[in-house]
Each structure stands twice: as structure tokens, then as C-alpha cells.
Amino acid sequence: MNRILFAIALVLFTSTTILRAAEPEKIKWITIQEAEQLCKKEPRKIIVDVYTDWCGWCKKMDASTFTNPVIVKYINQKYYAVKFNAETKDTLRFNGNSFAYVPEYKANELAVSLLNGQMSYPTTVYLNEKLEVLSPVPGFLKPIMLEKILKFFGENTQTAMKWEEFQKTFVGEIKD
Fold first, then answer.
1. What is the DSSP track for the chain?
2. Strand 123-127 to strand 29-30: parallel, antiparallel, or no bridges (unpaired)?
3. To the nearest whole number, what is the mean pLDDT of the chain?
4. What is the pLDDT of residues 5-52, one digit of tens each?
């Protein structure tokens, strides 16, 4: 009887382990406040996915672009990834400032600030290790385009060459 129970437990344990190993890696999304705290300990660039609950293209980007294994791996290695609902009514503290909801924009002041008042969703915002905006990039991005942008900022290429020049020479892992 004990052998049978042991065998069943072993099969269940092995099956669970195999299923966990088969699960694809996911982006480790955190809050903007968590990213700020982590940057103090281990500086990294920050990618901010500015979205709204009603945005169809935001959902499509979540389902396709942000699940691509190359994208997931690179973001988790090089960036702190922040998922930020532009319409949050919570007052937020970030980088020594307080950000509240702004009814005229139907958005939080942090979103207005990150997007330079150009309220378009989705928008992916890149911050440097000092929490300064490098660039907001509006619109849905396919994995092949996001890979370019991630590596442009992630490797600090923006300090050595212009985006147009980088695009001509870039060879990524993702094929269209």
C-alpha cells in the first residue's frame, strides 16, 4: 500500500514539475513605485506600458507582443517593467512628486507627464536609470519593432547613434 501511495505521489510531483517547466516565462510587471525603489538598489532602465482598460490595442499588445519569448527575456534581463493604467484615480508618488487624477485629461497626472500630454494608448515609455524619460513611443508595437526599440535603449545605443542609423544596421532575433 505504501509503495502505491509513494508511486502516485511521485507521478503527481513529476507531472507538476513538467507542467511548470512547460509554462512560458512572463514579464515581471511591477508598479512605478517598486521600479523607483529597485532603481535605487540596482539601477536599470524602466519600460512603462501606459494602457487603459478599454483599449483594444493595449490588450492585443499584451496578448502578442508582451508574450513573445525574446521580448520577455530581454525585458526581464535589462529593464524594470511597469504596467501603468493611465486612468487610475489613485494619487501616486514618484520621483519626489505627487500625481493625482486630472478630469480634463481623464487620466492621472503621471500619464500626462510621461506622454507629454499626447494621450494615446498604448504608449510605451522608456526611462533611464535616473528616472528621466528617454522617449514615449505611441501605438501598438509588433514584437519585431519592440525588440529594436528595447535594444536601442537597453544597450545605450541612443548615446552613440541616431535611431535612423541604428534601424539600418540592426539585426534582431525576431523575424517578421
1. -HHHHHHHHHHHHHHHHHHHHHSPP---EE-HHHHHHHHHHS--EEEEEEE-TT-HHHHHHHHTGGG-HHHHHHHHHHEEEEEEETT--S-EEETTEEE-EETTTTEEHHHHHHTTT---SSEEEEE-TTS-EEEEEES---HHHHHHHHHHHHTTGGGTS-HHHHHHH---S---
2. unpaired
3. 90
4. 565 655 556 555 555 556 779 999 999 999 999 999 999 999 999 999
Q: Other CB atoms closer than 10 Å to residue 11's CB: what's the count?
A: 10
List the one residue out of 58, 26, 174 whose CA is nearest residue 122: 58
Q: What is the pTM of this model?
A: 0.85
In this structure, how many other beta carbons lie within 10 angstroms of the beta carbon of residue 57? Answer: 14
Q: Please tell me the distance from the alpha carbon of residue 119 to that of residue 110, in angstroms, as a whole number.
A: 11
Residues whose CB falls within 8 Å of the CB of residue 14, separated by 6 or more in sequence, listed in order: none
Nearest to 135, CA basis, from 38, 76, 48: 48
Tell me the pLDDT tens digit for each residue of 107-138.
Answer: 999 999 999 999 999 999 999 999 999 999 99
